[in-house]
Specification:
Elements (H helix, E strand, L loop, with lengths): L41 E9 L2 H11 L2 E5 L3 E5 L8 E5 L4 E8 L3 H11 L3 E3 L7 E6 L5 E6 L39 E9 L2 H12 L2 E7 L10 E5 L7 E2 L3 E5 L4 E8 L3 H13 L3 E9 L5 E6 L5 E6 L3 E2 L6 E4 L6 E3 L5 H4 L5 H12 L6 H10 L3
């Protein structure tokens, strides 16, 4: 019996042509600034406000954080890696995202930022002290740049499982029995923000903080109008860093979308997910593997409906790689995994969402009917 050879190049997959190794066209956004004020080294931590710190701490421990410090008014969370805490939750009247804090490479960077923006260098409101400059990005988010804050020592972490792959038998006469326990967070990876002023916000992060774009996404039939999403990394020259530390996308809202925290491997993601499910938490989407960034992912909602991601095995890029360009679509969010959910996309209709759209369409921003229709089409394709 004969078989017709398979033309693998012609195979159609849900994400065919959505990989973004192809670069930009002449005249398109270069994805980096020629002369930024500073180049931040990394994302330091994220700041939230919540009324119930006890409930926040229960979820944090179940999700895999360790507590770095706790007072009556603040909860500082950390991973197992040495360095800054991952998150601070301050007691407040409502649950809301306050903004990100980035780490300056040098103390002199804070002075340069202060001179360029007219802001002051002040003491950082963080355990162990340090200094900070607080800026306001075009979307209205307070953005802190910090230096000299306390560097925490490493904690014991989960060890990656030893895998047998094909002919390589690295594990013999022993079994795999990963414990059912929280996925121990190693570090903060990235934050994703929605904005009505996408291009202004993008240029601000490139010009002010020296970040560079890894991948742009554009709407079908609207590439000439520019991108509507950017995955942005820190510029550490020849040192490889996460594919994205910050992602921005155009939308009718202005706010936090999700944040991502690195864990050891796929088994840590899966076993930690089972642990969360057994305790009644809600999975938003997962488990799968992304396209832009390549991360293994699993998304969960905390009791205040903030979305948090466990991830592992993400791409690392040096400064040498230029931005990729790809069309935006729901099917282009993952190489494999379950279909993307409406919860993850934020596509569930509600009176609040409708008011948000109407406010955006009437406002002075970058969202117009054509952009809105393009976004709706992308999220259903």
């Amino acid at each position: 019996m004969s078989h017709t050879p398979v033309d693998r190049a012609a195979l159609q997959t849900p994400h065919r042509d959505l990989h973004s190794e192809l670069g930009g066209l002449r005249g398109e956004h270069p994805g980096r600034s020629r002369n930024p004020v500073v180049k931040v080294a990394d994302l330091a931590w994220l700041e939230f406000e919540k009324p119930d710190l006890d409930r926040a701490e229960v979820f944090a421990r179940d999700f895999g954080f360790a507590v770095a410090a706790r007072t009556e008014r603040e909860l500082w969370l950390r991973g197992t890696f040495a360095g800054c805490p991952c998150m601070v939750i301050r007691r407040g009247p409502a649950s809301r995202f306050l903004g990100p804090a980035f780490r300056a490479a040098e103390r002199a960077d804070l002075d340069r930022l202060a001179r360029a923006t007219g802001c002051d260098v002040r003491e950082a409101d963080a355990p162990g002290g340090g200094q900070a400059v607080t800026l306001l990005d075009p979307s209205g988010f307070p953005v802190r740049v910090v230096h000299g804050t306390e560097q925490l020592p490493a904690l014991p972490g989960q060890q990656p499982l030893i895998l047998n792959t094909g002919t390589e038998g690295r594990r013999t006469n022993t079994t795999q029995r990963p414990p059912r326990e929280p996925s121990r967070i190693q570090r903060l990876g990235h934050v994703v923000l929605e904005t009505r002023v996408f291009m202004r916000a993008l240029d601000w992060y490139l010009d002010t903080l020296g970040m560079i774009v890894s991948d742009f996404l554009f709407l079908d039939g609207q590439r000439g109008r520019g991108p509507t999403m950017a995955f942005i990394r820190c510029d550490q020259g020849s040192t490889p860093v996460d594919h994205h530390t910050l992602a921005l996308h155009l939308g009718p809202g202005t706010g936090y979308v999700h944040s991502a925290y690195q864990v050891t491997d796929l088994d840590a993601i899966a076993a930690g997910g089972e642990y969360l499910a057994e305790r009644g938490y809600r999975r938003s989407w997962g488990i799968g593997r992304h396209i832009q960034g390549s991360q293994l992912f699993d998304y969960w909602r905390d009791p205040d409906r903030f979305m948090l991601e466990h991830f592992a095995d993400g791409d690392l890029f040096s400064r040498d790689l230029e931005p990729g360009w790809a069309p935006m679509s729901a099917s282009g969010l993952a190489q494999w995994g379950p279909p993307v959910t409406r919860d993850f996309l934020g596509a569930s209709p509600s009176p609040a969402k409708l008011r948000e759209v109407m406010t955006a369409l009437r406002g002075d921003n970058e969202l117009d009917p054509a952009r809105l229709l393009g976004l709706m089409k992308a999220m259903s394709s």
